[in-house]
């Protein structure tokens, strides 16, 4: 439940962060990681800063730090950076300038700075996705060349897949991700996978242009909690209803992207993911818990 001014009850903080309420309370008690206030009714309320510290804590744990080390580093970083807004704005501007200028070294340096100062989810949601939307708009207006689009997409794809290394490990539910046959654009699907990984899932990523028969075979082998197919245009899935229905019988199926629709979902037994990649990760994670 969300209270006024963006403050959260612990259950909602747990849902958003993918960390159990028991572990959140332990981090609060042992390390002082969370600093809740009290509502008039006596309930603990957690701030956006608490939510960000939880995300940073999780990032440090994934890099192999012990809980105590991760908490200490998270709190030290919070003291050095009481407000993310300046770092976020500078980082986004620096990355945009480097990518638009085809400057690979500067682009990698900008991404390094962003990841060292901000949580992965903040970088994805506040920098990477807005840049990709901006690039798409420039492409449609004829203001971005093929070279511009290829350079930015390939550089970002490489960095995101680097962050995805080991995302199939752990004990959480598994998601099987793939692009529809003929679909080459997988950046948004990679972002979705990283966001779902942040929520405790394991990811198996098959990438672009995946035949439905191969995807169905993989689903039967892995028995995932969710299969997500991305398509940027309706023709990627039009006429393939039989293959999708077969896949939906093998595992819970979701379709996403501009090529997906509620109507296509109804015809095939799939659920339609009508949200950006981070919101879509929330929807899939919530559905699995229900």
Q: What does this 3D model show about the protein?
A:
The protein has 290 residues and is of the alpha/beta class. The protein has three domains: 4-79, Multidrug-efflux Transporter Regulator, Chain: A, Domain 2 (Orthogonal Bundle), CATH 1.10.1660.10; 85-163, Orthogonal Bundle (Methyltransferase, Methionine Synthase (B12-binding Domains), Chain A, domain 1), CATH 1.10.1240; 174-289, Rossmann fold (3-Layer(aba) Sandwich). Helix content is 59%, strand content 10%. The protein has helices spanning 10-17, 21-31, 48-62, 67-80, 85-100, 104-117, 120-140, 146-163, 187-198, 212-222, 241-250, 262-268, 277-289; strands at 37-38, 44-45, 174-179, 202-207, 226-230, 253-256, 271-273. The strands form two sheets. Strands 4-3-5-6-7 form a five-stranded parallel sheet, sandwiched between helices. Helix 11 (241-250) links the parallel strand 5 (226-230) and strand 6. The longest helix is centred in the middle third of the chain and has 21 residues, at 120-140.
